[in-house]
Every structure is written in structure tokens, then in C-alpha cells.
Amino acid sequence: MPFSLRFYNNLIKCSRMNYSSVRKSKPKLRLEAQEVHQEESKPLHVLRNLFPWKTKEQFVDHLVANVVYNQDGLIAINKPFGVPLMKNGLTTGHSESLFSIDEALIPLASKLNVEKILPAKLVERFSSGISLFASQEKVVDKIQQSYISNKIKKIHTFKYLAVTIGEPKPFAFKGTVGMGLFEHKELTKKLPVIMKEYSNRKVADRLVQEYRVNYKTLSRGDGLCSLVEIDTSSVKNHFLRVYFAHLYSPVLGDHIFGNRVQDIKGKRLAISPIQADSLSNFQKIPTDILTRLKVTESSIVPNCLHLSQITLANFNNRDVNLVLKAEPPPSFQFICEAFDLNLPNTDE
């Protein structure tokens, strides 16, 4: 049966109405797409973007951009926070670096036009700062010889910048500090502690290790945190972390020993290592500090220790020491700005 003219007219009319409604809905869809795009392109909080590289090539390029010295076979790189020499297993979370230094050595050597790169002395994984590499075995030996010369001449090899919770007591100190090991039946392993008193015999028996230190508080901001510069003869056994906790001013983001000091009735008080270990897997950072950093979880705050300077005695010249310097990473600088802490000029 043939369709009537009225049927065709109604069909055309309905089609126009549907087409019109689709045209009117398009701007809404476009607006929603723009909103999603804007949300996706919103910059991440600097503390949630500690590892900005997504590919190995990006990671290698980041290392190349942070080379602070490359002469006579010695290569110094400003290593990012959280990057290990080697990975022990699979990366399981956003708070870990996808790549290790070991994975980058071959492409890094190619980028720097050297045959190979050998790790010589790296700052520990959860600190940032100067790490030393060599393109020849003999340069590794020269670095070790410089360390020995530093010890003989009593030159402090390492200079760190640290952001601490509160202010160290005293605010400055120069001298020798002893660190030993604390044992208890409730502990499965010995814990490093600062020794207030110890004998020369314990040092001779290697029950206490001595460290030469020289620190000063550079900036106090509004009192929540402080910026401290400390140079030391050694950093073995997490000495700096343990020492700052001993000074009632643990390193901000120290998730190993940072709980040894707690706010109790408005006062910063030391608690036993046993209690500290059972509190939390992460440092219990005061709420007002987290609020200032615009975060809610202590776990994403990085350990605020940066190796800003290394001195190599007589490295290329018997009468001249080689001094290498590196600026703190963006996360460290952001934290300093949040608490009005003035960073020193690395060119000085």
C-alpha cells in the first residue's frame, strides 16, 4: 500500500527535529569534553609527581640534564630522590621510581659520549643530591684516595641541606658525635642511637663510631620547620637521620627514624626506639605541617635530605680540592617555600 504525502511530510519534519536536537546537544558534549581535558591537564601536586619520567629515555634525559660535572673521567650527577642504584623487585606503586640507576648506565654512557659509566659513590636512595660516577676504573680509585685524604686532613666530605620539624637544639654545633647500637629483647635487630657518653675503649672495639659534624640552622621561617646545613665526615648507618631525631628535630619525611620525637601536650619529646618503631610505617607529621604542604597523608612527603656538596681533596691537584655542588630538587624547594625557608646560593 503506497504511503501518503502526509506520512512523508511528517517523516521529514521528525528528521529535522531530531537533527536539530543533535546539533543543539553537540556544544554540551564539547563542553563536557573540554572539562575532562582540563581536569586531565591540571598539573599534579609537586609531591605527587616526584618521578615525572614515564619511559627509560625520559629518565636518562633527566639524568643528563642533571649532570653537574663531567671532566677527566669523573661524572657527578644530581640524583633525584627515591631512585635506587638497583631495583630489588617490581615497581608496585606511584610512589616508586620506574627505573634504577643501573638500568640507565648504558644509554647514559652513550648520551655522554663515553665507553662506560661506573657507579663510584651514590647518595642513598631516599635522599637527593650529588652522586659520583667514573668512566674509567682508575678514576674510582682516585675518588677513594680523595676520601682517605679528607680523613687525614680532617676535611668533611659531605655537606647536606635538611628540612627538619621544629628547630634543632642547640641551633648550631661543631664537634664529635658518637653513635652506637641499641639492643632489646623486643627488637629483632639492633637500632642505631646517639651515645651521650662512651669510652675510648668502645670506639677502639668498634662498638661506637665517631662522626665529626658541623651544623647550623640557616632559616627558621615561622617556626614549624627549619632549614639546616650540616657537613659531616661520614653518613654511614643513617647517621644524619638518627642525629637530627636526637636533636628533637627529625628530618621532615624521615619514615625510618622520624617517629623518635613526638608532640606530647604541646612539647617535642623523645620516645624510646621501641615505641617509635611500633607507631606507624610512616612518620607522624603534625597536621599543621601537612596543611601547609596542601596534602593529607604523611606517606607522600619525601625525606628532606639533600647532598648539596662533596669535597674531594687533591683530586686533580695536590694543592687544590675539588668542590662539587648541586641545587635541591623541585620538591625540596617547594617545601622550603611553603615554610618561608631561605635556601643558600649554590654559587657562593
TrEMBL record:
<dbReference type="InterPro" id="IPR050188">
    <property type="entry name" value="RluA_PseudoU_synthase"/>
</dbReference>
<dbReference type="Pfam" id="PF00849">
    <property type="entry name" value="PseudoU_synth_2"/>
</dbReference>
<dbReference type="GO" id="GO:0001522">
    <property type="term" value="P:pseudouridine synthesis"/>
</dbReference>
<dbReference type="GO" id="GO:0003723">
    <property type="term" value="F:RNA binding"/>
</dbReference>
<dbReference type="InterPro" id="IPR020103">
    <property type="entry name" value="PsdUridine_synth_cat_dom_sf"/>
</dbReference>
<keyword id="KW-0413">Isomerase</keyword>
<dbReference type="GO" id="GO:0009982">
    <property type="term" value="F:pseudouridine synthase activity"/>
</dbReference>
<protein>
    <recommendedName>
        <fullName>Pseudouridylate synthase RPUSD4, mitochondrial</fullName>
    </recommendedName>
</protein>
<dbReference type="InterPro" id="IPR006145">
    <property type="entry name" value="PsdUridine_synth_RsuA/RluA"/>
</dbReference>
<feature type="domain" description="Pseudouridine synthase RsuA/RluA-like">
    <location>
        <begin position="74"/>
        <end position="246"/>
    </location>
</feature>
<comment type="similarity">
    <text>Belongs to the pseudouridine synthase RluA family.</text>
</comment>
